[in-house]
Amino acid sequence: MEFEFRTIKAKLIFAFVTFFMIGAFITATNLWFNDKKERIAEIISTLTTIDRKIQLIIKLEKNFFTDETVNSVFYQTEESDYLKRRHELSLEINRKIDTLKHLEEQEGFGVEIELDSLADRLTRYDIIFEQLVKEVKRRGFKDHGLEGKMRNYIHAIEDSAKNHPIDRVLLLTIRRHEKDYILRKDTNYLAKLLKISQLFKADIATKIANVKARDNYIKLVDDYANTFKELVESEQVIGTDHRRAGMKKDLAEIAYQVEVQINEIDDVVFTKSIHIRENLQITLMIIIAIGILFNILIAMYATKILSQPVTELSNSIHEVIASDFAANINLTQFNSKDEIGRLAGDFTFMLERVRSNISEIREKSEKIEQKQKLLLDSLRYAQRIQYAILPDKNELLPHFQEYFIVYRPQHFVSGDFYWFVEKYEKRFLAVVDCTGHGVPGAFMSMIGHTLLTKIVTQDKIFNPAEILENLHFEVKEALHQEKMKNDDGMDVCLCMMEDIPPEASEPTTQVRVVFAGAKSPLFYEQSGQIQRIKGTNRSIGGRSKYARKPFQSTEVIVQKKEMLYLCTDGMIDQNEETGKKYGKNRFINFLKNILHYDTRTQKACCEKELEDFMQTQAQRDDITVMGVRL
Asked: Is 178 exposed, middle or buried (CB count within 10 Å of its CB: 0-12, 13-18, 19+)?
């Protein structure tokens, strides 16, 4: 059927086809505008990523100087996980800078020189750090490097002193100045040591008649003093911290310059991105205006033949579009039942729906963004609070030869926590799994931590079974469970440890371990095997058919240097892609296979075991595994 162009129907069809074509063009323009915004956002995100990775590098370097420089294994193998991870991060940063340069070529923000300068600074930073690592290796620790060489000389001097009538007070003074410098890093002790060394050599020359023995002894003193001087010079090259002269200070200054430069680039990009967005917005509005103008021209042509209602309706529609669907602009109403009347009614309905949808979308979007920001800020702050109550290495290392902790909350905060208290030479250690995870579990963990500390330190209850009974009562009281009828609670693996005094004057070699568990077992090493003690089949808090079943304490004697393992059920109940759980037997076999490793390696093995088992499967619960060597 052919439409006669003179009819109202045909003209309206023509007008609407034109309108939708313009709409499609505006939509395509808007998509291009969004793509432009995404590239700008990618630049800003990449800058943020670079800054975050640089902060990670600084943290790794701090951990390296804190842990590895006092680790003899590092000087033997010259390998460090910190250095390896730092190298990987450095490569990632260089790739991100290359990405920025590529985006800069596309967008033209005018920061190409700054990016080249940033890359040069980072290269210089890496070079200084590599030099610093070499100097650290040269300086050495204990039996390695200059410190090891110096100790060899002083030990040889001390051995020779046993066979000669020299002034031992001078020798002890030399050792005291050496130790004072090692502790305080004050170069005044170098001058003191060199002065005492001269007096010591004079004493040797006076008291040792044998020329060869005397010359050898004096050479040992000179070699020791020179090596000590080299060590001091190495310390000065390294720098004791970021505030004093040395490579550490150079690193800190360059890191600060890098951070400032990243902020400057970010400011330039942010300012120019606003300008680009404004230009794009103006361009988009111009295109919309051109579309509106084109529709007006079509309407003007149509009004030559169409009646006055068509003209009024067309003007009304364009007024609404020009106002960007403003609420105070409405379409002209027509009471006629012809095509114009029906069209006016349809447009009125469509306008109301569009306005309603736009308003609803904007309102919901703003609320969602606000709530999401508040939620994430709250969770991050809660995470810092929760980590603050957990025992750190300063609390644990004085009481255990070594330890490791795998602590992996399912979300930001965890329903698991680990706890340690020492009272009257009794050590109390627990790993606790509270009901739920995330924020509810974190609240329970705070309650559990507070109550355990109170029961042991204030109430002075030391029997693990009695501690659990009191914890059960305190949890029910704190949560008003008799009234509220809630079943929140916790599973606990609790140990009390104390050294067994030896019968003779020999050092203590055995530890008495008293365990009580609330649905949680204890795993411990005995003669190279892993033993398990089951906990009482009853949880802390809540209502249970086992509520009247008393908690039982079990005592075992464990040799020093053997391991205890405390854990929640997070790892054991974790499932793989097929739905199969990890399981207790597999966990026991895994512990047996890693017993001979140090705890640092055991932790790495445990994390790798989890990753290999889970693969792409999501973590289903909070996971805590703790191992301590008695």
From this structure: buried
SS3 string, 376-423, reads HHHHHHHHHHHHHHCCCHHHHCCCCCEEEEEEECCCCCCCEEEEEEEE
pLDDT at 1: 41
How far apart CA 391 and CA 428 sit, in angstroms, is 12
* Total residues found in the chain within this entry: 630
pLDDT at position 19: 61
159, 220 Cβ separation under 8 angstroms: no
Rounded (5°) CA angle 586-570-561: 65
Tokens of residue 418, six digits? 């680990």
List residues bridging with 523 in a β-sheet: 532, 565
Nearest to 627 by CA among 523, 541, 531: 523
HSE-up of residue 502 (Cα within 13 Å, Cβ side): 8
Query: Can you tell me the distance from the alpha carbon of 17 to that of 6, in angstroms, rounded to the nearest whole number?
Result: 16
3-class secondary structure for 62-79? HHHHHHHHHCHHHHHHCC
Q: At 3, is the pLDDT very low, low, confident or very high (cuts 50, 70, 90)?
A: very low
Give which of 55, 54, 98, 64 is closest to 84, Cα–Cα.
Answer: 64
594 or 436: whose pLDDT is higher? Answer: 594
DSSP 8-state assignment for residue 504: S
Element (H, E) at 232: helix 211-238
The backbone torsions φ and ψ at residue 435, rounded to the nearest 5 degrees and listed phi first, read -60, 130
DSSP letter (8 states) at residue 458: I
| Cα-Cα-Cα-Cα dihedral sign, residues 25, 28, 34, 40 | negative
Distance CA 402, CA 531 (A): 20
> Amino acid letter at 377?
D
80 in Cβ contact with 129 (< 8 Å): no
List phi, psi (to 5°) of 392: -105, -175
Judge whether 465 and 516 are in contact, CB under 8 Å: yes
Amino acid, res. 608? K
Interval 413-430: pLDDT, tens: 888 999 999 999 899 999
223 neighbors 160 (Cβ within 8 angstroms): no
pLDDT-derived band of residue 495, with 50, 70 and 90 as boundaries?
very high
What is the predicted pLDDT for the residue at 348? 74
Tokens linked to 163: 């066979």
Could you tell me if residue 78 is left (phi over 0), alpha (psi between -120 and 50 degrees) or otherwise beta? left
* Cα–Cα nearest to 567, from 578, 583, 547, 544: 583
Tokens of 162: 């046993």
Block residue for tokens 């010359």: 215
Residues 33 and 276 sit within 8 Å (Cβ to Cβ):
no
Crossing angle of helices 145-161 and 211-238, rounded to 10°: 150
Q: Residue 117 carries which DSSP code?
A: H
Q: Which residue has the tokens 């209850």?
A: 461
Tell me whether residue 37 is exposed, middle or buried, using C-beta atoms within 10 angstroms of its C-beta: 0 to 12, 13 to 18, 19 or more: middle
220 three-class SS: helix
Instruction: Determine the Cα–Cα distance for residues 555 and 335; give it in Å rounded to an integer.
Output: 94
Residues 565, 626: Cα–Cα separation, whole Å: 6
Greater confidence, 510 or 357?
510
- Which amino acid belongs to residue 347? F
> Do the Cβ atoms of 591 and 550 come closer than 8 Å?
no
pLDDT, greater one: 471 or 104: 471
- 479, 451 in Cβ contact below 8 A? no
Query: What are the backbone angles phi and psi of residue 586, rounded to the nearest 5°?
Result: -65, -35
pTM: 0.46
